[in-house]
Amino acid sequence: MNKYTDIVVIRGNWQGGHHGTHPKVLSITPESDKPFGVSEGWGHGLGGNNFSLKELVEQEFIEKFNTKESEAVYLKIKNAFKKGVNQNILAKQLLGELGKNA
User: What are the angstrom distances between the C-alpha of 14 and each of 11, 18, 50, 102?
Assistant: First the structure.
């Protein structure tokens, strides 16, 4: 089983958000064929799934993180995809930069 590290947690008051107790979460595990996890909520929250970089961007799941709080990560992922960066290398870079603060 792959261990995910949360790199972005956005708390907020949105429909289904229960006043921030079900945050939008972006997680990564660099050694997976689908290294990006997107969910809303802790544990049994509103569900989520794991994605490849291509799926994350092309199916627009990354757009959940197009916010002021997560703009730097959002732009880094979008730009890496446009440049054709290997998804596992990107995941390792993000983990190195953000994992210690997660």
Answer: 9, 7, 22, 22
**Domain count within the chain:** 1
Pick the closest to residue 71 from 6, 14, 8 (CA basis).
8
Query: Shortest CA distance to 102 belongs to which of 75, 70, 74, 64?
Result: 70
Per-block mean pLDDT, blocks of 10 residues, the chain (102 long)? 80 58 84 91 67 97 94 97 97 87 54
- Of 28, 38, 30, 91, nearest to 62 by C-alpha is 38
In terms of residue numbers, what domain contains 84?
5-101
Q: Which residues contact 9 (CB under 8 A, 6 or more apart)?
A: 23, 24, 25, 102
Backbone phi, psi, residue 100, to 5°:
-70, -20
pTM listed for this prediction = 0.84
